[in-house]
Structures
1.
Amino acid sequence: MICLSELIVVHDRLVLHSSEKNAPGDVYVDFLEGTLAHRKKYGGGKNQLIAKAVGIKPKIKLSVLDVTAGLGRDAFVLATLGCDVVMCERSPIIHALLEDGLKRASSEEWFQQLNLKLIHADAIYYLSELNKNNYPDVIYIDPMFPEKMKTALVKKEMRALREVVGDDVDSEKLLNAALSIAKKRVVVKRAKLAPTLTNKKADVVYMGKSSRFDVYLRTAHANSSLDYKSTNADLS
C-alpha cells in the first residue's frame, strides 16, 4: 500500500494531509468543536444507542477499553457519559493525531474532568499483557474492514484512515482476545448489514439507521472459554 499522507501542523494543530488527487481535505482530532462538540450537546446523552450497547446505568461508572480508537469519537462520547475510557491505538500516525487533540482540549476545565486516556499499543498484545486486576468492564471494537461499495470512501476520515492503516485483518483474533478479558461485555460496532466478526452470535444487537452494535455478554460462570447465549435480539 502506497501512503500519500503526511503529518503537518496547520493553525497550531496536527493534521493528516493527503497528497492524493482529489483528496477531500486535512484530517485532525478536535474534541472541542465541530462534530464532537455538536454530538456532546445534542447527541441524546445516555439515550444514545452506544450508551445502551455499552450498558451505561445510573450511579455505575464503567471502565471501557476502546481497542480500535481511530479518531476517538466514540471514546469521547463514552467519556462524556461518565465512563472511564482508555483509547488503544496501534498506528503511530493516528496516535499522534489523538495525542494532539487531547493536548489542545486539555486547556478546557470541563474536558479535564473527563476520564479519557490514550495508549500507543497493538491491542492484541496489550490485552495479553494486561494484569487481571486491570481488566476493563467493557471492551469496545470498531474494526475497519474492506468495503464493497466505493461510496463508503466518501467520508474524508475514512479515506485518510484507510490510506494510513489499511484494513483490520486481525479483527477476529482481537474479538476472541477481548472475550477472554472483558468483565461485563464486549461491544462490536458494525455497518448495519455487515456480517459478524466470527460465527459467534451476539447476545444482543442494537440496530441503528446505518450501523449496529453486537453485544457479547459475560455470564456468571464465564471463563477463558466463554459460553454465550445464542439469542439475537433487535432492540432498535
2.
Amino acid sequence: MIIKERVNGVLKLLDIHYPMNDKCYLNYEKPYELMIATILSAQCTDDRVNLVTIDLFNKYPSLESFAFADVSEMEKDVKSTGFYRNKAKNIIEASRALLEEHNSEMPSDILELTKLAGVGRKTANVIRGNIFQIPSVVVDTHVKRISHKIGFTKNTDPEKIEQDLMKILPKSHWIRYNTQVIAHGRAICKAPTAKCELCFLTQLCKFYIKAK
C-alpha cells in the first residue's frame, strides 16, 4: 500500500473514532498560561500538569507575577512535574521575555517563540495551533511512537518527524492529528504494551502487520 493510501485510511478512521475538533488537553485561559503548562508537560503527563496549574495559576494570576517570581518558590510549586529546577527557571525567564521584549504579547512566529526559555518546537507548535490557529504539527511522545508504528516516519528525532508529517498530512489535519493520536495512545496504543486486539488501525499499521 502506498503511503498516500495509508495516510488517507488512517485519517479517515481517526476522524470516525475520535472527535474532529482540535482539542487541547492542557487547561489554560491565557496564552502565556498555555506556554507555561506546555513547558511543564515535558516528561510529565497532562493530567499531572493540570493538577499543578490549578494552584499555580491562582498563586500567580498575571504574567508579571510569573516574571518576577522567586525561583526557589517556583521550584517548590512545580516540583511534582519533574525536572523542576529547569522548568521553574525557564518559566520565569520566558515570562520576563514576554513582558520586556514582546509587550506582554505572545508572538506567533516560530523563530521568536523558540527564542523563549524552555520553548522548543513542540511548545511553539502547541501555541501556534491553539492560540493562533496556525496549522502546526506537534510531535509529543504519542505522536512519535504511533507515527513510527504506522509507518508515517522512520525518524526518531522530533524535528525530523515533524517535517515528515508535514509532507504527508494535509494541513487541515495537522493540529487534529496530534489530539487524535494522543487519544489513541491513551486508550489503545499504549506504551509499553499496546492493545492491538482492540485497535481499528491494525490493517494499516506496519508494526502490527510485521508482527503477525
3.
Amino acid sequence: MNHVVCCLQPSVRAASQAQKDDVGTSLVSVYNKLNGLETPPSAELVRYSAREFAPLIEAMGGDRTPWLEDSPVKIVDGHCLAASEHRLKELREAAGRALPGTSLVVYEPAGGLGSDVVPCEDGHAQERSLFGTRLKTVESGELWIADRNCCPRAFLGASDNRGAFFVTRAHQGLPLEMLTPLRSCGRTSTGQGAQPRVCVGDTQGHKHTFRRLRITRNEATRDGTTRLFILTNVPRQISAKRVAALSRKRWTLETALKHLEAYCHAAMNP
C-alpha cells in the first residue's frame, strides 16, 4: 500500500506482483488483509518516516530557524476529507458509501516534517475527541500551536502541568473566569490587541492561569469573524504581538499538506 500511495506502483496488484517473493501469499489474501487494514500501521509509518528523516535533515544542515528559542514547536490540526473529495464520482451520492475519514496531524516546522498522526475512520468525529491520545506525548519545554477545534481543557491542563506551552485559538464554549481587566497590548500585524489573565479549570478540577489575547481585526476573516481570541501559557516576556504571530504560523501545516499531496500525487484523479 505504501508503494501505491507514493506512486511507486500503479496498483495494489502491481505492487504485490513486484514483491511476490517477499509477500509470499496470494493476491486474494493481500486484498483480504487490505480490506481490514487497521489505522495504527498508518500512524506508525508517519512516525517511522520522521525518525528516519530527522537525522538526515540535521546532518545536511536543513533545520530551519527556530520559531521560539529553546522550545521545540509542534503544530497540531485536524484534516478531514469532504464527503465528495477523493472519491469515485459514481459513489459520491450513494447512500451506502463509505464515510470519509479524519485525522489529527502533528507537524514540526523546524525540520519540515509531519512527525505523528492520529487517523480515525469516522469522518464525523470531532477533532478534540482524538486529543486524548496526544496527552501522553506532551513533553516539558515544547510549544504546541493549534486552532480552536483543538482546545480541550484536558489538553490545556496537561500541557501546563507538564511544563509545556501552547498557543491556541480559544473556542467560545470554553469556561473561564476573568482575573484581570482587559488591557491594550498594542497593535499586531492584523489588528488591535488586548489581553487579560484568565482562570481555566481542567477536567480534574484544578485551576490554571493563562493569558487570553483578544485581537480586533482590521479585516474580517473568511468566515466573517472580526475578533479572535488566543489562549496561551507562554512566559510573560513573550509579547502579545509575538504570540499572535506564532498563532498565524499554524497555517504552515496546511501548506505542508498541500506540498505532500503535490509531491506524492496523493489526490486521486477525478
4.
Amino acid sequence: MSTLNEQPPVTGRHDAYERLLARCAGLEPISTTVAYPCEHTALAGAIEAAEAKLLAPILVGPAKKIKEVADAGGINISAYPIEDVPEAPKAAARAVEIIRQGKAEALMKGSLHTDELLGAVVSSATGLRTGRRLSHAFVMSVPTYHKPLIVTDAAINIAPTLDEKRDICQNAIDLARSLGRDKPKVAILSAVETVTTKIPSTIDAAALCKMVERGQITGGILDGPLAMDNAISANAAKTKGIASLVAGDPDILLAPDLEAANILAKLLTFLAHADAAGIALGARVPIILTSRADSVLSRMASCAVAVLMAHARRAGTVTVET
C-alpha cells in the first residue's frame, strides 16, 4: 500500500524561486525574441534578465519607440539588437519567424496583448505549433509550501476536454522535469475524492490516471480525483483514508477548468502571498508571459524557467512532440 507523504517544514519565504535561479548559474543565456517591448516594465524585464545572464534578448518592435522608452526609463539597450517592426501583430509574427529560423530558443511577451502574441504562435502555416495543445502554467512560490508549485491551466484552455487535459498534464510534467523533478507528482483536482457521474471532472481524473498505465502520459505520478485539502495536506488525506503517493507533496495541481485554476492561482497570490511566474507550454519553444504587476523576482523566475526548459531540450531530457 502506498504511504502518505509528510510535508517538510515551510520557511515562509520565497526560497523556491531562489533555488530556481541558482539552478541557472553557469548556464549559457538563451537567445530570446522579445515581442513589442514598448512599455517600461516590458523592456526593463528583458534587460534585467539579460543583465542576470539568463537571456540574450532580440528586441522586436518599432525601433524609435523602443529607444524612446529606454531613454525615458534610463535603460541601456545599446548591447542588444533591434528588429525594427512597426506594429504589434507584425512584431509578434517577426519574433516567431526568427525562432523558426533557428536564431532564438524562447519567446517573451512585451507590451502587446497576449492573444496577439499567441495568435502568431498558433498560426498553422507560420507559427510554433507542435502535436500538442498549447497550455499555460504558473510556477508558484508559495511561502507556506515547501517547493515550487505548478498550477495549470489558468489562462488558455477554458473548458478543456479529456484529450486536452492529457496535453495540459504532459506539458506540466515536462516543465517540472525541466525544473529538476525526476518523477513529478500530479494532483488532479475536483470537488471530491471519489469518481461520480454527477461531477464530470472526477471521471476525467480517473481516465487520466489510466492513461499513465497505458503510456499515454509519461514521466509523472498521477492521482485523482483529489479535493484541494487532500491534494495539499497529507493529514487531510489520512483522515479520509486516502493512501496516495501524491497527497501532501504534489508538484503540479491540474485544475478541472480555467476558472478553477485562475481562482486558485489568484487566491494563492493574494491570500497566501505567493509569487507566480507565467509560462506557455506546448509550442516549439518556451513562451515567457509576464505582467506589469509582476514583482522583479517573479519576472526573473519566469525567465529562469524558460532557461531551464531550453537547456533540458538541448540535453534531450525533455523532447518536443512534433
